[in-house]
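Limitations
The structure tokens in this dataset are predictions for the assembled complex, not deposited experimental models. Users should treat interface geometry with appropriate caution, especially where small molecules or nucleic acid strands are included. An illustrative entry is reproduced here so readers can see what is and is not provided.
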Amino acid sequence: MSKYDYLVVGAGLFGSVFAHEAALKGKRVKVIEKRDHIAGNIYTKKIDGIQVHQYGAHIFHTSDKQIWDYVNQFAEFNRYTNSPVANYKGSMYNLPFNMNTFSELWGVRTPAEAQAKIQAQKDSVHLSGQPKNLEEQAISLIGTDIYEKLIKGYTEKQWGQKATDLPAFIIRRLPVRYTYDNNYFNDTYQGIPIGGYTQIVEKMLDHPEIDVQTGVDFFANKDEYLANYPRVIFTGMIDQYFNYQLGELEYRSLRFESEELDIDNYQGNAVINYTDAETPYTRIIEHKHFEFGKGDEGKTIITREYPADWKRGDEPYYPVNNSHNNSLYKKYAKLAKMEDNVMFGGRLGQYRYYDMHQVIHAALTLVQSEFASNVGKG
Ligand code: FAD
Ligand code: UDP
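Predicted assembly:
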């Protein structure tokens, strides 16, 4: 048996919150991470004085004051409000779908005019009952025009599937409002940590009871780890843990292509979405705008995000939570329950389209149940 109470597999947000809280309770924790750095997909790195979001734009948002206070222990947040702009075949539209968008598209000026326009489009399609898929959900929320220009192309390239085959909940992530408000989120609290996200995880893991090893894959020595550690928190792919014995869950991957440019300002906004079907990437991020232009003079860094099919060995950025995958996941979750000393967490371990605040909430919930049910152990 090792000298540790816990093995945490994955130094992403879930694993790091758990490791931090366990260490505060006096537990000895070993964290292994297969990448060569900590922080998982929230990893940021300073290049040319700019905090570069290495795995895509990350904006923290929550309405839960406890979660907001929790994360603020580890960094000071700026007042960044996410307001992406859509580029559809060269025309620019504000996001999310709000009075600015409606006015740009149709020249309408009032909420009543916008509502009448959208209602007429909905009536022309004759939808009945609950929306059965993303296309029906989008049209029932926002009409055909916005669906065709700002949703269909983006969604189908992002997910590699027809919008009629995708679950409705994905499009309900985006607000629809009849006010001139370009805030992408409805949450009470929002911001970006000044100085990037990596520091948050660094501080979580900076504890004498925590040892971190990067560049180590759990599957290289799975049996040994399970034999030697009393309790394991696993934040990798749940189907991989069980050697895909019930079949593969589906994931969506991404390819990030970054460019350093010798100009101050490339696109005037942190995020521009390319919503047509033909442009092969979904969005371009210009990182310096997350910190209001902070960075070396005359330099900027942009990243194009290309959606990609997932196959074994690729990074599984998104679970594809359609009904087929969700029911397969449930079967894996049953197997997981039977693993006495292994707990599964995070976007991959719980196969959920979790945002950061939800990951923190899930990790703190596990901490609570673990230390309530496990009093005296370890
Ligand atoms: P991860 O960050 O994936 O961490 C899991 C870690 O485990 C990884 O580091 C992985 O390398 C490691 N690992 C896996 N298998 C093994 C193994 N076998 N051995 C050792 N280590 C292993 N959320 C927001 O709130 N706001 C946003 O704006 C936002 N934007 C996003 C944009 C993109 C493009 C993506 C992909 C996600 C975004 N998210 C956003 C979601 C956010 O990234 C996640 O909620 C969060 O990072 C998940 O944390 P996690 O610990 O569950 O997973
Ligand atoms: N979406 C869209 N057009 C956009 C932005 C988003 O159709 O310009 C849809 C798309 O299906 C996407 C979903 O809304 O997958 C959720 O968007 P979000 O920005 O939350 O995606 P994430 O940042 O998680 O990739």
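Some entries come with short summary sentences. For this one: The chain has a mean pLDDT of 97.
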